[in-house]
Amino acid sequence: MLICTFLPPSSPDPKDESCLTHLFQSFDDPNKNLRNWSIPTFSNPCSDFNSNLAGATCNNGRVYKLSLQNLGLRGTISPYISNCTNLQSLDLSNNSLAGPIPVELQYLVNLAVLNLSSNHLSAAIPPSLAMCNYLNVIDLHENDLTGTIPPQLGSLARLSVFDVSNNKLSGPIPASLGNRTGSLPRLNASSFSGNKNLYGYPLGPMNSKGLSVVVIVGIGLGSGLLSLVLSFTVVCIWLRSVEQKRADEQEAKIPPLMPDY
């Protein structure tokens, strides 16, 4: 009891404060949905299990969940999000956030849910997300992501939801994600659809749309060349026939020679 008496009360984590401060500064909040996100609150975002911030959930004085979906937020995602080291769920879906997915998310080692869907995020999917071993959900659909799907993400043994549909991804779907075996949850085609240059199981083979253009051009060039050859051949045959006809006519005009006696 004496020991408990002298234990200090739970205090705010300075890393949470840095995380929240920089995150708010990277956002543009035109609808003022984050009214109580202010510097004084960032220094004390949690009171044990109670949150002092809209959209934040606390556990034992630490922020462990951020639910900021559908708030009309603009701007980017600050790399300082990695300072919220106790974060287990990050949902920024249905906003207008742009820029890349921070590679610093790899430091959120407790992260289980990552939902960044329906934004304007661009660039490639960071392979370093595979460092978040507890990830159950990666939802990135409806963005402007480019590049290939990192095969490293197939190593996430707990991953049950993976959605990258309706982006600008290209290349093959890694077998470690598209054709999962054993006890790993299988992903269907809808998780990858809407990416024009993405191919492989569970989608179809290499997108033939681009190849069809090459084929069409090749057929067009081949047809043109064939037509040119045929036309040249016909003209040559016609010219030869005309020359032969003239030769025959000239030969017919020459009088026959008188025989010698």
UniProtKB/TrEMBL annotation:
Q: Where in the cell is it found?
A: Cell membrane
Looking at the UniProt entry, the stretches that span the membrane are 211-239
Where is this protein primarily located? membrane
Q: How does it sit in the membrane?
A: Single-pass type I membrane protein
Q: Which InterPro entries match?
A: Leu-rich_rpt, LRR_dom_sf
Q: What is this protein called?
A: Leucine-rich repeat-containing N-terminal plant-type domain-containing protein
Q: Which SUPFAM superfamilies match?
A: L domain-like (SSF52058)
Assigned keywords, A-Z: Cell membrane, Glycoprotein, Leucine-rich repeat, Membrane, Repeat, Signal, Transmembrane, Transmembrane helix
- Glycoprotein among the record's keywords? yes
Gene Ontology CC: plasma membrane
Pfam family of this protein, just one? LRR_8
Q: What is the similarity comment for this entry?
A: Belongs to the RLP family.
